[in-house]
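Tip: read the tokens left to right.
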């Protein structure tokens, strides 16, 4: 990744506390990165492409953290819980960005990208449910993924982990076959 692009992406989290998603512009992002708007345009064709790249970077971070905490764990319930905890903790840490991503979901330009990413995670989670012997692992995965995303949204709004919400996730997992 070019240094220019990296500087622009690094400016995103700094802006989340001061600006709503709707206020984003190439000029604002470039200014926060100490660059000119033309340099933003060289790296990103639009603010939507910029936010998509931010989300990709965020999901890379999530994936790296999940792999780190689950790499020594066999497929199953414990691994799913560790992965979920890691995802939710990362969402709280980056709650400002996640707030932008929630707003961005309403943009049709990003909906296909978000849907594809969710499908990929659904397949991964489905394989865990399959390993646990759930009769409809892909359906369970889609429901669990929706639950995780909602839990992340509730925690993002609260600005902290919600034990009550996480207990519901564990109850769902523990209620399987």
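Filled-in amino acids:
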């Amino acid at each position: 990744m070019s240094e220019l692009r990296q500087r622009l992406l690094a400016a995103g989290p700094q802006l989340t506390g001061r600006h709503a998603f709707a206020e984003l512009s190439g000029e604002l992002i470039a200014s926060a990165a100490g660059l000119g708007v033309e340099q933003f345009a060289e790296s990103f064709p639009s603010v939507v492409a910029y936010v998509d790249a931010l989300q990709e970077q965020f999901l890379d971070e999530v994936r790296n953290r999940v792999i780190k905490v689950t790499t020594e764990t066999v497929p199953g319930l414990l691994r799913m819980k560790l992965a979920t905890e890691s995802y939710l903790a990362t969402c709280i840490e980056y709650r400002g960005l996640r707030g932008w991503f929630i707003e961005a979901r309403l943009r049709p330009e990003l909906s296909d990208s978000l849907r594809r990413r969710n499908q990929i995670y659904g397949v991964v989670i489905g394989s865990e449910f399959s390993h646990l012997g759930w009769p409809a692992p892909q359906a369970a995965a889609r429901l669990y993924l929706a639950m995780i995303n909602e839990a992340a949204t509730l925690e993002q709004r609260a600005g902290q982990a919600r034990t009550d919400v996480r207990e519901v996730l564990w109850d769902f997992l523990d209620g399987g076959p």
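The CA atoms of residues 61 and 90 lie 8 Å apart. The chain has a mean pLDDT of 91.
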